[in-house]
Automatic annotation (TrEMBL):
<feature type="binding site">
    <location>
        <begin position="152"/>
        <end position="154"/>
    </location>
    <ligand>
        <name>carboxy-S-adenosyl-L-methionine</name>
    </ligand>
</feature>
<keyword id="KW-0819">tRNA processing</keyword>
<keyword id="KW-0808">Transferase</keyword>
<feature type="binding site">
    <location>
        <begin position="181"/>
        <end position="182"/>
    </location>
    <ligand>
        <name>carboxy-S-adenosyl-L-methionine</name>
    </ligand>
</feature>
<comment type="function">
    <text>Catalyzes carboxymethyl transfer from carboxy-S-adenosyl-L-methionine (Cx-SAM) to 5-hydroxyuridine (ho5U) to form 5-carboxymethoxyuridine (cmo5U) at position 34 in tRNAs.</text>
</comment>
<feature type="binding site">
    <location>
        <position position="315"/>
    </location>
    <ligand>
        <name>carboxy-S-adenosyl-L-methionine</name>
    </ligand>
</feature>
<feature type="binding site">
    <location>
        <position position="105"/>
    </location>
    <ligand>
        <name>carboxy-S-adenosyl-L-methionine</name>
    </ligand>
</feature>
<dbReference type="InterPro" id="IPR029063">
    <property type="entry name" value="SAM-dependent_MTases_sf"/>
</dbReference>
<dbReference type="Pfam" id="PF08003">
    <property type="entry name" value="Methyltransf_9"/>
</dbReference>
<feature type="binding site">
    <location>
        <position position="110"/>
    </location>
    <ligand>
        <name>carboxy-S-adenosyl-L-methionine</name>
    </ligand>
</feature>
<dbReference type="GO" id="GO:0008168">
    <property type="term" value="F:methyltransferase activity"/>
</dbReference>
<feature type="binding site">
    <location>
        <position position="200"/>
    </location>
    <ligand>
        <name>carboxy-S-adenosyl-L-methionine</name>
    </ligand>
</feature>
<dbReference type="InterPro" id="IPR010017">
    <property type="entry name" value="CmoB"/>
</dbReference>
<comment type="subunit">
    <text>Homotetramer.</text>
</comment>
<feature type="binding site">
    <location>
        <position position="130"/>
    </location>
    <ligand>
        <name>carboxy-S-adenosyl-L-methionine</name>
    </ligand>
</feature>
<dbReference type="GO" id="GO:0002098">
    <property type="term" value="P:tRNA wobble uridine modification"/>
</dbReference>
<dbReference type="InterPro" id="IPR027555">
    <property type="entry name" value="Mo5U34_MeTrfas-like"/>
</dbReference>
Length: 330
């Protein structure tokens, strides 16, 4: 069974320590009640991932664990087969003992767009909401974060993260909790909170922004990356049914509308630092993610539109600072 004891030990003497009053009970319920049928199988695979301390670990320019020289060809092939049992791999890429996990998303490209605009992560406590398999958490740690906590309710993402962490060695202060943000008590403790690729999946975007604010310390920085449309502060796309074949897309605001939402939630210094149309090279099917991908979601006759006729995915990065909250909004 996946254990969270190392996380509890780490936060016991930190500004997250009051989390210990509620979190063990929340995660205990998850461990007892989670019914995902593949979780026992995935946990058995995790128990087989026992390898020597990697001779190379790089989280600053990539996520590279091991050069491949420590393992025999047979061991590398076995490891590749074990990691393949966690498919589909969506966020990455990872290099593990010479094995290149070519994920659906080139998440390193997104990080290259985000990194130049955010405050230095050196010695900061960071929360990554909707972290997926944890690729960006390793990059955050590689850029100097003191502690990185990710939350994502997907058991598969948790197991993918655990696989990478166990091969890298469990000593790194990077942790994934299988929870949604609505399950977290307000902490007012993180220096930086990321929400990348989450907002458009929320039925209530304002509530999501308030939940993010509740995790930040006063003066802390919020980094949002989300789908947007063109338009003024009143422009918001609400798909009638699906968007890009996804049935869980609720609100796609313009940059101006999202800026207004953030200001209404008492964030200050709100600024858009990047807008980028998602390319077919950044999101695609691979040997590690064989399902449909972006090319299948777009109109084959006009890739500027989704298959439903909506504007093709365009993503913006917005940064804001937590200000004194207006109690009327709470």
């Amino acid at each position: 069974m996946i254990s969270f004891s190392a996380f509890y030990k780490q936060i016991a003497d930190s500004n997250l320590q009051h989390w210990l009053e509620t979190l063990p009970s929340i995660l205990g319920n998850w461990q007892r009640e989670h019914k995902h049928g593949n979780l026992p199988k995935w946990e058995k695979v995790l128990n087989k991932l026992q390898y020597p301390t990697p001779d190379i670990i790089d989280f600053s320019a990539s996520v590279t664990i091991g050069s491949g020289k420590q393992l025999t060809d047979g061991q590398v092939e076995k490891l590749k087969n074990l990691l393949g049992l966690f498919q589909p791999w969506r966020k990455g890429p990872f290099s593990v003992h010479g094995i290149d996990i070519d994920t659906e998303w080139r998440s390193d490209w997104k990080w290259d767009r985000v990194k130049p605009h955010i405050s230095s992560l050196a010695n900061r406590t960071v929360l990554d909401v909707g972290c997926g398999s944890g690729y960006h958490m390793w990059r955050m740690y590689g850029d100097g974060a003191k502690c990185v906590v990710g939350i994502d309710p997907s058991p598969l993402f948790l197991c993918q993260f655990e696989a990478i962490k166990r091969i890298a060695g469990n000593q790194h202060p990077v942790h994934l909790l299988p929870l949604g943000i609505e399950e977290l008590p307000p902490l007012d403790a993180f220096d930086t909170v990321f929400s990348m690729g989450v907002l458009y999946h929320r039925r209530s975007p304002i509530d999501h922004l308030l939940q993010l604010r509740d995790q930040l310390r006063m003066g802390g920085e919020l980094v949002i990356e989300t789908l947007v449309i063109d338009g003024d502060e009143n422009a918001v796309l609400v798909p009638k049914d699906r968007y890009g074949k996804m049935n869980n897309v609720w609100f796609l605001p313009s940059v101006a509308a999202l800026t207004l939402w953030l200001e209404k939630c008492e964030f200050t210094n709100v600024r858009c630092v990047d807008v980028d149309v998602t390319s077919l090279a950044e999101q695609r099917s691979t040997a590690w993610m064989k399902n449909e991908s972006l090319v299948d979601y777009l109109d084959p006759k006009d890739v500027s539109l989704t298959i439903e006729g909506y504007p093709a995915p365009k993503r913006a990065i917005i940064i804001a600072t937590k200000n004194q909250p207006n109690l009327d909004l709470i």
